[in-house]
Amino acid sequence: MLRGRTRRGRRADADGGTAPAGDPLDAAQERRVRAVLALGGVPQADLPDGVQQVRLRLLERAASGQEAPRDVSAWAAVVASNLAMDWHRAKRRQERLGERLAALRHLEHPSGEDTSVLSVAVAQGLDGLPDAQRQVVVLRFYADLPVRSIAEQLGVPEGTVKSRLHTAVRALRARLHEDEVV
What we know:
The protein has helices spanning 27-39, 47-63, 72-105, 117-128, 131-142, 147-154, 158-178; strands spanning 4-5, 10-12, 18-20. The protein is mainly alpha-helical and 182 residues long. It has a 3-stranded antiparallel beta sheet with strand order 1-2-3, with no helix packed on it.
């Protein structure tokens, strides 16, 4: 994917974009990482930090003498998905804390603005899935990773990935029909 160096210590990647010299992610991989984070529910403001975390983990892996991942793009997508899961866990902890504080103060939480009905319903459906199911849905249907690659990267059998996908898609479909979105 590396095409050559440009003048200021940046390299040209396969898409014609540039990445800093020594950057372990090319522009396409960075876009994929951003998308996986966003689909995993990470807010836009936190996406740059998430991308940096993926870069850092790849650099730490190299610095510790570990072999580079066979498929850096797939590895980065899985790391991004794991970061999104961590973000959700932290968010849930914060929400529970906020609920306890609100109960103490007897305050009500204001509701957020609605955007498109379908995107809200899908986002809520994804949020309602267990972490493992949400992770495989994002990796399979957005990051477009094959089942085999997801299984290898997560360290689970392919059948487990297929089962999680089947269960998650069935739950999402039921949720969308229940909410009369589709």
